[in-house]
Amino acid sequence: MMASSNMAKILLGLIVVGTILAGALPKNVMAQSPVASIVTQEFFDGIMNKATGDCPGKSFYTRDVFLNVANSFGQFGSGSADQSKREIAAFFAHVSHETGFLCHIEETGGSNLENSHYCDLSMGPCNPSKSYYGRGPLQLTWNYNYIGFGNAYKIDGLNAPEMVAQDVVVSFQSALWFWMEYVHSVMDQGFGATTRKINSGECDGKLPDLVRARANYYNDFCNQLGVAPGDNLYC
To answer: What are the catalytic residues?
Structure first.
């Protein structure tokens, strides 16, 4: 009985110490995910450092916020090591293309664009005083996407689409929501399938230079991460 009692005290002590140490660790250390091991600070900075000129994104987008948001999407970057790397390479290839290497927060031209409202009433309502042009890492566009994202996160995407460009957490949430909603499921079909989901208007020979540019970014990131890019790179 004495030995058993001593052992119980030792185990209790270890549990207490472990709890204290765990509480002292930063959350991002406690919850190291496969995504965090792939999207290193060096990898993230390497993308941002390619941006040129006046870049509002440099003081907006951060790796820590991306990782915290990504951790809430358990299936993002899931699967084998190679599958994780390919998905992350694909995501940041499109982000790089859409934002100029994390330079832009809002679509160039914004409310001055001819079709800045991006309102399709057949897909949902619009606020006539708001514009649903591209915002965030994947440049969330169109009223129905803002509404869908808003419904998922209890955000008023219909009446406050500008939140995607004002709050970096909301911004990354919009990108990863869109990715998981529409793009993640086609990763096994090749990078070209992801381009079609992001912007089908570039596919089928319509804008081949843009399709190749996205694929070139993807190939570059796959090379950095040490994974073969796979087949079907174009759409």
So the answer is: 98
